[in-house]
Amino acid sequence: MSDRSGIFAGEDPFAIAQGWLSEAEKIEINDPNAIALASVDADGLPNVRMVLLKEIEAQSAPSGGAFVFYTNYGSAKGVEIEQAGKAAFVMHWKSLRRQIRVRGLTSREEGPQADAYYTSRSLKSRLGAWASDQSQPLASRTALMAEVAKVTATHGPNPKRPPFWGGIRITPLEIEFWADGAFRLHDRFRWRRPDPNSAWEILRLNP
């Protein structure tokens, strides 16, 4: 597309996304990798929450390009995503006046990649993953800290990744790049494909 230049240039949407994130990491004050993750429950009622995006896999990767975050599979989002097999998110940077919207299919990442990320976390975060029955009712903060002490004694200073905790990979069917424009005449480009093995269709959208 002739007018897709500048910050929108390139044929690999994952490379564009990584480039935008890298820019945001230099100037965004807090959590430039934060995304608002959307899922639906068994009744079709939407749910949205903030999580941290941990990896943008390149189009040349075995996954063919994807976005990965990590969570407790028993959490509300973990259960909802497992049931639907689909999710969406938006990543917005006020500092850049840009956002990326993604909709796609989901799968678990439970192999060495998940193990490596888990190991990279602080010890307290690793123990917290064991201790928290995420999204379930909690009697008190004291009860949570008692559970942390219990798992610390059980799993020691080098805990393995919990079997109920790991990555969720979103393989996109749609990616939209948005940049603020004067007089609300924003620039929007949507990459869309019917399935992960198909070529992208790229369209400029009205603001």
TrEMBL record:
EC number: 1.4.3.5
Pfam families on file: PNP_phzG_C, PNPOx_N
HAMAP family assigned to the protein according to its UniProt record, in alphabetical order: PdxH (MF_01629)
Protein name per the record: Pyridoxine/pyridoxamine 5'-phosphate oxidase
UniProt keyword list: Flavoprotein, FMN, Oxidoreductase, Pyridoxine biosynthesis
Pathway, per record: Cofactor metabolism; pyridoxal 5'-phosphate salvage; pyridoxal 5'-phosphate from pyridoxamine 5'-phosphate: step 1/1; Cofactor metabolism; pyridoxal 5'-phosphate salvage; pyridoxal 5'-phosphate from pyridoxine 5'-phosphate: step 1/1
Function (record text): Catalyzes the oxidation of either pyridoxine 5'-phosphate (PNP) or pyridoxamine 5'-phosphate (PMP) into pyridoxal 5'-phosphate (PLP).
Broad enzyme group: oxidoreductase
Quaternary structure annotation from Swiss-Prot or TrEMBL: Homodimer.
Reaction equations catalysed: pyridoxamine 5'-phosphate + O2 + H2O = pyridoxal 5'-phosphate + H2O2 + NH4(+); pyridoxine 5'-phosphate + O2 = pyridoxal 5'-phosphate + H2O2
Binding site for substrate: 54, 117, 121, 125, 184-186
Cofactor note as given: Binds 1 FMN per subunit.
Annotated binding of FMN, by residue: 49-54, 70-71, 77, 99, 134-135, 178, 188
Domain Pyridoxamine 5'-phosphate oxidase N-terminal: start-end pairs: 26-153
Family: Belongs to the pyridoxamine 5'-phosphate oxidase family.
Keyword Nuclease: no
Cofactors, names only: FMN
Species assigned in the record: Sedimentimonas flavescens
MF (Gene Ontology): pyridoxamine phosphate oxidase activity
Domain called Pyridoxine 5'-phosphate oxidase dimerisation C-terminal: residue spans: 165-207
